[in-house]
Amino acid sequence: RSQVLTVGLSLDYRPGQRYISRPDGKFNLGSKWPTFNVQGRLAVPDVLGADVRYLLLQASVRDNLPLGLLGTSNFRVNVGGFMGRQQGLTFADYRHFSGNQTVLAGSFSNFQLLDYYRFSTNNTYLEAHYDHHFNGFFLNNIPLLRQLKWQEVASLNYLRTARVGHYVELGVGIEHILKVLRVDFYGALQSGERVGTGIRLGFGF
C-alpha cells in the first residue's frame, strides 16, 4: 500500500493592483489586469515512510470583465501537468477535474456534464471556463418578462488531456428566477461528437 507525503504552494499576482488607505482601513481599488496564479504539489519520497514521487505544476489566469450594457464576463484558464520522474503514482494522485452527474449545480463555474474521473490525468492538461451574464440585455426588451427581472447567461467549459482529447460544454440559462435561482441547459461534445445534454439547477443572483 502506497504512502504519500505532499507539500503544496500557491501564489497569486495581479499587476497594477491599487489600494487606498483611510482611517477606517485599507481598500482595494482593483486593477485592469487579470489575476495570475502559479501552484505546485510535490510528493516527497523516503520521508516518514512515503514512497510516492511526483511534481504537479499549474499556471492559471482569471478575470472579471465588465462590458457595460452587454453585461459581465468571467473566465479562468488553467494549464498544467506532471513534470519529471514519477514513482509509485496511484489514481488518487492524478489531477482530477470538478465534474457533475447530478441535476444540482454546486458551482456554475465548473463542468456540469463531465464524468467525475474519466478525464483524470497524470500527464498534461488544458482547462478553461467562461461565462457571460447579460444582465437582462435581451429579456428586458420583452415587456412581460421585464417585470420578472430574469437575466440571461451563457457559458463554455473546455478540457483537453493527452489520453481523452478535447471536451467542450456549451450552456445557456436564466438566472435571478425568484431572485436567487438559476436554470441552465448544457450540451457536451467530445472530439466533435455529442456525448450528453442536461439541465442544471442552482443559485444565481
Summary tags:
mainly beta, 2% helix, globular
Q: Average pLDDT, to the nearest integer?
A: 94
Coarse shape: globular
What is the overall number of helices?
Answer: 1
The largest beta-sheet arranges its strands as 1-4-5-6-7-8-9-10-11
- What distance lies between the first and last C-alpha atoms, to the nearest angstrom? 46 Å
- SSE string: EEEEEEEHEEEE
Q: How many strands appear in the DSSP assignment?
A: 11
Structural class by helix and strand composition = mainly beta
Assembly state: single chain
Any idea how many domains?
A: 1
> Rg, please?
21 Å
Helical content band: under 10%
Question: Strand portion, in percent?
Answer: over 45%
Short description:
By secondary structure, this protein is mainly beta.
Structure description:
The chain has 205 residues and is mainly β. The longest helix has 4 residues. The mean pLDDT is 94. The protein has a nine-stranded antiparallel β-sheet, with no helix packed on it. The chain has one domain. It contains one helix and eleven strands.
